[in-house]
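Priority: medium. Attachment 1 of 2:
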């Protein structure tokens, strides 16, 4: 299977994990888009969805899937989303599409995070993919200097504003030996809204499209 076929196969496999009569958290990106299209086929079995971006909300609505406000929901059994990188510990880098803040919020509320990905996303160590960081615009230079002190090389994502009105710094060459520690360190820098490390709230299940099938990886 090509990477795109692997994404679609992982997205299709995720449908088997969707409980009947529930609200579903939905991620952002090309893999999540495949999932939305599959979810549309069983929309009569769910009560609606919470979207992690304006783009996802638009796609859900185009399939006549009701999009609900997270503030009106007290239980979210499942969140399904892609990743830019994921390790065997199910720690992830996310935010390639710039939706990391809302993704992290929906993931925090969800009882179960199902990551769907093609096999190129599975890595031994995070950091090859530049780490996206959402920053309040007036803090951009300060945050960039603080990140340089941690050994990273931040680059402002050009012509991009997040759904929350902020900017993204893509951090190159950051050594992420301990994703939980690094996520904590970045959370301490004033002006950072969200960093793209999903280690505290890792995935619970990885559905990984591979050459011939979809592998299910969970923590032992
Ligand atoms: C968007 C994300 C995506 O999940 C991540 O970028 C993966 O995207 P794709 O499924 O297109 O490979 O975090 O902010």
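Attachment 2 of 2:
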């Amino acid at each position: 299977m090509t990477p795109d076929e692997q994404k679609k196969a992982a997205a299709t496999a995720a449908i088997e994990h969707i409980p009947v009569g529930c609200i579903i958290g939905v991620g952002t990106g090309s893999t999540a888009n495949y999932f939305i299209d599959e979810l549309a086929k069983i929309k009569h079995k769910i009560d609606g969805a919470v979207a992690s971006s304006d783009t996802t909300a638009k796609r859900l609505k185009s399939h006549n899937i009701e999009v609900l406000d997270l503030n009106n929901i007290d239980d979210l059994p499942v969140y399904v989303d892609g990743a830019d990188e994921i390790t065997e510990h199910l720690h992830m880098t996310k935010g390639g599409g710039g939706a990391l803040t809302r993704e992290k919020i929906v993931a925090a509320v969800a009882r179960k995070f199902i990551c769907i990905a093609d096999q190129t996303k599975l890595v031994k160590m995070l950091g090859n993919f530049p780490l996206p960081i959402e920053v309040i615009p007036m803090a951009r230079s300060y945050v960039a200097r603080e990140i340089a002190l941690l050994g990273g090389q931040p680059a402002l994502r050009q012509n991009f504003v997040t759904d929350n009105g902020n900017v993204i710094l893509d951090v190159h060459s950051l050594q992420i030996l301990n994703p939980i520690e690094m996520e904590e360190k970045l959370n301490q820098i004033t002006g950072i809204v969200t960093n793209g490390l999903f280690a505290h709230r890792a995935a619970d299940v990885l559905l990984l499209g591979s050459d011939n099938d979809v592998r299910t990886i969970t923590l032992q």
